[in-house]
Amino acid sequence: MHRRRLMFSAALVAAGVGLFSGPAVAAGPVAPAGHGVAATTGGNPGKGGPLPGGKTFSSPAERTVRTSPAGSAARTGAAAQAQRASGDAYLAIDLEAHGPTAHSIELRTIVTSEGAALDVTIDWGDGAADQVAVTSSGSDLRYTTHKYAKVGKYPVTVTVKDTTHGVQAVNRLDFVTSGSEYTAHAPTRLLDTRAGIGAAQAKVAGRGSVALKVAGVAGIPAGATEVVLNVTATNAAGAGHVVVQPGKDGFETGSNLNYAAGQTVANQVIVPVGEDGSVRLVNGGWDSVDLVADVTGYFTASVASGYTTLNPVRAVDTREGIGTAKGQVPGYGSFGVDMAGRGGVPKGATAVALNLTATNPRAAGHLTAYPSGQAAPSTSSLNFSAGQTVANSVIVPVGPDGKITIRNGSWDRADVVADVVGYYSTDSRAALVCLGGPYRVLDTRIDSWGRKAGPVPARTMLPERFDADTTNSDIDGWVLNTTVTNTTGAGFLSVTADPNTWPDYVKGSAVTPQRPVSSSVNWTAGATVPNLVQTSGGKGGIIDFWNQGWQDIDLIVDLIAWYQTS
Fold first, then answer.
1. SS3 80
2. Pairing of strands 542-547, 153-162
3. Nearest to 93 by CA among 175, 169, 146
4. What are 103-114's pLDDT values in tens digits?
5. Structure-derived torsion over alpha carbons of residues 279, 284, 290, 294, reported in degrees to the nearest 10
6. Which of 101-110, 134-143, 352-361, 402-411 shows the lowest per-residue confidence on average (mean pLDDT)?
7. pLDDT for position 464
8. Letter string b/e over residues 402-421, b meaning 16 or more CB atoms within 10 A of that residue's CB
9. Most exposed residue of 73, 387, 444, 529, measured as fewest CB within 10 angstroms of its CB?
10. pTM of the prediction?
11. Is 537 exposed, middle or buried (0-12, 13-18, 19+ CB in 10 A)?
């Protein structure tokens, strides 16, 4: 079941036969017109990195350790081959494994023998073991799955006993789960090309890139599997976009950040760490741009904090006096926000996932969200210009008192809105499974299977299927980079879980979802605006994209990762 779901929700995306789409709906959901393919532009999806579960762990037959009869010495490789030639019974084990889900392993074993009766024991490395009896000689091929209670690294040992000849063989591989868990990190600047921090003091050239060392830097461990960065583009000479990825080869169809000439814009990025401990920021534009990156956390394949998604809850609105005093935040002013024990966030949460919005600012500036009890860091969570309404997704560590602090980095007043979309805690089970880079799964500007190119109409909802036919999805949250473009007026996008299952849409029995009040992306006329979105897909793995504006928009969605409980 899990392999089938991942095939629908990720593997087929890479193959170009990806997710399933439904039509935009106004008064309520209607039956889908057909299955939509992940629309792509400008290149080859999947180039440059494996899908989750695609990392292979292997131990070839040559590494088999064989114990001969009468207690003779163990033999491996060429010695085992010579032993076979000498007439002794041959016995070898070939192992290969991958992680189809966050916590599971699928192990392929090939046992080659001359004995007709074999006892096979698989020790999974967590105290559990499976035993299999093989009753024929030659090569025995089988796949065995196992689910781990916790993410981590496990030694998987396969022992085969040839009861006919009294021979035993052992082979082992070290398996690392596909899932990883989060550790909060105080906001810290790792890259600033304006100041020569983390890279040369120079703009990143058009179509150029910069490698940023992250593992082993600023308290990030060498074994970090992914990092959370707030990436900012500024001083852009022309329009363009930024892709953040683990390796040198690029994802030509996705983006993490879009910018216009002269614009300063930020977006949160969750990206795998490359084998060399670095990530690469690629300038997809034709003109130069300065890049800034601040770390706020990292993931490791070890027990830390899992994720729990929440229906968006408004935690702060200075226009209404929610979460703090009513009234705009003064220039260079700050305020604390109680997070633990409010809005579904439990006491003991290590970090919260927020959609942070600045609105009605009197002058240009930035907001910074950080743990309480600390001095304000020299980092930014989002940037704004005078009069602009702009949002950015942030993951903020929670202070010891259960609070976070939000600071207005402008010299003049601004309103602040914050919606909580999830939290991290040691009691949360969902682990991150991250793609190698952004995969484009929806582009309304392009024809897709079952959906003609065309914008999302004003005041309508577009449901998108991200999971297989399920009524109890084991994916707790999806991580998406959502971009709105071709805007002709101001508006905002809401991204929420759909309460239905896909068969409900097919049968015409889907209920009308309640129109949300939270915002994920805010835009003005003529703007192209991205934002990272973390959202549940509900019980059926369906996500609703609501155009809350009064004019049509085009929508682009790139899949980044998901949080999975199994």
1. helix
2. unpaired
3. 169
4. 999 999 999 998
5. -30
6. 134-143
7. 93
8. bbbbbbbbbeebbbbbbbbb
9. 73
10. 0.88
11. buried
**DSSP string for 442-502:** EETTS-BTTB-S-PBPTTEEEEEE-S-S-SS-SEEEEEEEEEEES-SS-EEEEEEE-SS-H
What the block records as the tokens of 27 is 């008064």
Residue 536 CA to residue 308 CA, distance in Å, equals 9
For 78, counting Cβ atoms within 10 Å of its Cβ (0-12 exposed, 13-18 middle, 19+ buried), the class is exposed
Phi-psi domain of 452 (left: phi exceeds 0; alpha: psi -120 through 50; beta: other): beta
CA distance 2 to 7: 9
Per DSSP bridges, beta strands 415-425 and 306-317 are: antiparallel
Cα-based angle 242, 248, 251 (whole degrees, multiple of 5): 50
Mean of pLDDT values over 389-404: 95
Q: What is the pLDDT of residue 33?
A: 29
pLDDT over threshold 70, residue 5: no
**Dist. CA 510–CA 266, nearest whole Å:** 37
Q: Is 3 helix (H, G, I), strand (E, B) or coil?
A: helix
Q: Rounded to 10 degrees, what is the CA torsion of 254, 255, 256, 259?
A: -170
Q: Is 71 helix (H, G, I), strand (E, B) or coil?
A: helix
Check residue 196 and give its pLDDT: 98
Tens digits of residue pLDDT in 309-341? 999 999 999 999 999 999 999 999 999 999 999
In contact, 1 and 147? CB cutoff 8 Å: no
In the prediction, which pLDDT does 250 show?
A: 59
Q: Which amino acid is at 367?
A: L
| HSE-up (13 A, CA, CB side) for residue 390 | 24
Please report which helix (H) or strand (E) contains residue 85, including its range: helix 77-85
Angle at 382 between CA 376 and CA 383, to 5 degrees: 105
Question: What is the bridge-based pairing of β-strands 475-485 and 542-547?
Answer: unpaired
Q: Beta-strand (E) ranges in 38-123?
A: 57-59, 65-67, 91-98, 104-113, 118-123
Residue 200, Cα to own-chain centre: how many angstroms?
29
Q: Which amino acid is at 399?
A: G
Taking residues 538-563, what's their average pLDDT?
A: 96
**Would you state the structure tokens that stand for residue 3, as one six-digit string?**
């392999």
Contacts of 71 (CB under 8 A, 6+ apart): none
Of 93, 85, 86, 88, whose CA–CA distance to 69 is shortest?
Answer: 88
Q: Which of 460, 467, 463, 417 is nearest to 552 (CA)?
A: 460
Amino acid in the structure at residue 176: V
- Asked whether the beta carbons of 173 and 122 are under 8 A apart, the reply is no
pLDDT of residue 28: 36
The bridge status of strand 542-547 relative to strand 167-176 is unpaired
Q: Is 188 exposed, middle or buried (0-12, 13-18, 19+ CB in 10 A)?
A: middle
pLDDT in tens, 144-179: 999 999 999 999 999 999 988 889 999 999 999 999
CA dihedral of 402, 346, 326, 320, whole degrees rounded to 10: 160
> Quick one: tokens of 15?
């193959």
User: Taking CA 198 as the corner, what is the angle to CA 197 and CA 201, rounded to the nearest 5 degrees?
Assistant: 55
- Residue 435 near residue 564 (C-beta atoms within 8 A): no
Give the length of the chain: 566
On the question of pLDDT at 489 being above 70, the answer is yes
Kindly state the greatest CA–CA separation across the chain: 88
